[in-house]
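agent: user wants the structure for Sulfatase from Pelosinus fermentans B4. delegating to structure tool.
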Amino acid sequence: MKKVEIQKKYTYERMFFCVSRWEELFNNIQQDIKLFVFVLGVFCLFRIGFIIVLNSYISEAATFQDIAMALYYGIRISLKSTGLVVAASFILCTLLKAFMKDAIIINLRYILGCTYISLLSLLFYARIPYYEQFHMGFNQLLFNTFNDDVPALFYTLVEQYKLPIRLLLTGVTALALCRLLKVWLGTKTYHLPRFSKWYGNIAFRTSLLIIAYYLVIFIRFGGSMTYAYNIDWENSGVTKDEFLNEAILDDVQALYRAYTLHERVMASTGLDMDPQRMVEYGTYVAGHPVDSQKVDDFLKKEAQGGKIKKPQHVFLIIGESYANWPLLPQYKDLNIANGMRNIIAQEDAAYVPAFLPNGMSTISGIMGIVTGLAEANLYLTYLPESYKEPYSTSLAPQMKKLGYKPRFWYAGPTSWERVKDFTLAQGFEEFYGMGDIASQSGNVWGCDDKYLFQAVASGVDHPTPTFDVIMNISNHAPYTVDLEKEGFDRDSVISGLPDNVKEDQELIKKLGHFWYADKVMAEFIRDMRQQYPDSLFIIVGDHADRLNIQLNPSLYERYGIPFIVYGKGIDKNVFSKEVAGSHINVSPTILELLSPPGFVYYSLGESMTRGNGVGFNYGFWVTHDSIGKIGSDSKESMDGIKMTSALEENFIQRDIDARRAMSWWRIKNGKNMKIIE
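agent: tool returned. relaying tokens verbatim.
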């Protein structure tokens, strides 16, 4: 009898333990569901907040249906982002508690939730100024942040983007949401249902596991049960409004996009990169068959002959954030680009309005101009290959062959992006930075432009032919130039603004800094022309997309930069009306203007004096009449009439593929098209 009682007691204990584990599992699943619902709600809240705060970026063509669609697809894609923290909670809390009876898990789910919510709060407040600056949620440019001048970057965040206020808002928001989460997780949970029949219990528990399995699939595919209807950052742009398409991506997905794009470009250009294919690309770039396995042999060119008499001094000015749109006729009344307008109007000046920067940032532009290589997201300033010797396409050594002393002038610190080490390694004989320039004003990014140009002017040695590359910085946040002292006429700018932004003091301040940069450049060019009448001046922007009056400008107005050549012997016919280009065309254009017939030089791009018809960069292409996104059907006419044909687009893509592949291979694999083991 005693033995029977012991057996019954053992059986009851096993049943109780089994039931308690299922009870624990059922209870924790409910807690995970609560966490899921709450975090998904936070994503939706931040998405709505993002749209409300930046509602002025919504185009007039957008409708409430587009907004509703953005919110719907936003919820779907945020299922994935929410699933990350809930998966961690399920593994670390639910499963451990269910299958490890003695596991001690105190408030871990709440801690995980609070950590995630705090991160989302920080990203929300960071994404607003990021979008205002780049017209995108987080992108691959993030991965170059700590290659930048970190102290200067931090100062800009504090001064221009009110970092302390944003951090305070982040803390308040995160604290409020975390308190709500605690209340939410403390709400009632339901007991595990128990049925009188054993098979009823088994059926319920089996159903519970099946539902959980399919719920995971539903979350994994963003509100779909199959991969065929999966939603991700690549296919989520379903509305006709670019801003709303960005709003669909939550901050986690935007970061994932940035990481993915960064990894893709770092790994390859998306092209067939085997050596045989590289020969085909090289043949295209060369324009004729080349019996060689050396990259440089495909980049070799002979000058057609100097277009002008060789000047004593050549000045290449790279204008910080000097976009092309202020030079367009419709913005003439803003009066912020009158300096360059007057130069373009001269008989001995030529202007290419269909021109693109090499990349999204200043250093991308400098890399493209200095080396002549296309943007490949490889950050040449940090690659050992860039310090072995100058690339054959680099501009400074080739100008040296023409008898010029190449010098680089930068208004900022020499440590920024290793710009001093990089330019000297690429053939410049001298480098002058902020520490070498006597100035009375400026900010952490460098001295005011007038002091930079004064230093250049005083450093011109007339007997010695010089090639001076000048990079200014004043047209850059945190915008600290004393505009009133410099003579800025606010009323003349305000009169040219649309009524809805006439009171926008921050915009007027930014436009004032564009005016200042334009004014100082024009004054420098005028003074140097008077002292050295035969000088040649080349003016080009480093990038655009930082300042627009229109919240949703056309691709051309958003990304275009000017290319201007001014000097004795230049005329309006130097470039044909159908010419276009980008930073990789700067070097060959200068060399063709100055070189004697037969002079051998190296370049990836073609000279615009030879009628180069396509410009391209990291994401866009341009011709004289159209602009479009690479790998997309998105394109716009620049004259409102003609658009590129499908045949022309095939040529454009072929041109981009070949030049980008040659650039990437040379940077990544060296001089040989055949990799030597």
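agent: one observation worth passing along. The chain has three domains: 2-264, 270-298+656-677, 307-619.
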